[in-house]
Amino acid sequence: MKCGIVGLPNVGKSTxxxxxxxxxxxxANYPFCTIEPNVGTVSVPDTRLNQLEEIVNPERVVPAVVxxxxxxxxxxxxxxGEGLGNQFLGNIRECNAIxxxxxxxxxxxxxxxxxxxxxxxxxxxxxxxxxLKDLDTVSKRIDKSKKAAKAGNKDExxxxxxxxxxxxxLEELKxxxxxxxxxxxxxxxxxxxxxxxxxxxxxxxxxxxxxxDGNEFVAQVKEAVKDEHAExxxxxxxxxxxxxxxxxxxERQIFLEELGLEEPGVNRLIRSAYxxxxxxTYFTAGxxxxxxxxxxxxxxxxxxxGVIHTDFEKGFIRAEVIKFEDFITYGSExxxxxxxxxxxxxxxxxxxxxxxxxFLFNV
Length: 363
What we know:
The longest helix is centred in the middle third of the chain and has 32 residues. Helices cover 42% and strands 19% of the residues. The protein is of the alpha/beta class. Its cofactor is Mg(2+).
């Protein structure tokens, strides 16, 4: 599951990416610094792992991860190929969700491609390019479906109907994610992998003075996206870079306290990206390993088991499940079992975030 970082050049994407990942993307004060998309695998901060480690004392702890893709800065005309636009837009299409970075700080030493700081204009610039790309995708599919619809194919007639509505929506400069669609309509839209249908998180990159409470630029962004069902996060990428340079946990905590922050902004961002991708976590806990496993929300027991190994899913018999809170309260699997807090679940069980699971299978 990939989350793509997008935005205009010089808004702080590569600085942010460097904070998120050990992959060191070049960060410089000019457009198109990042030509190939940088990909980083980022651990998801989860304090529950620390609690499990204290109780179980395993040989190792393995967190869940999210894949983050740093996509080069888009510019006006990207949908027509300007500034390597087609390549960049193709990279976005391959992502499951989008982190849209907006510059919400003044700094005369860092140039802006349009000369002034205006996050709403910047957002609209990116949106229009993505909408134009989606219009092109939808238009090609409508042309193809119309031929089959004329021959009496009712499924394709439905496709034409839905995509005609999508076209009208995009022509109003609205993103597809804002549309109210039923299950069948959503299925048709999903099949096209439209960029503006992907879930989005708006990240307001601010300076140090606005790191805690934001500023007027952030307020403008929140007002502009209020109908998009999108989250808005405030983060100071340069401060995050400074935190990354500090050697010890204690040094980082002192620095955060001086700024009035409880934790690094990237921690909140990674958790939000994880949620944006519609993911959740279950755990396995033993003396060899305590591990967080990533699943899609709504996964069944066998599907969750399949994340460990396909044989677990094929030969799934049942799962032993302990709720995280119960495990912490009673302090061990055996005590949870004695207290009746270990449940045996079958193939229809929907795994809940935080479940501690042990699978029985036979291949």
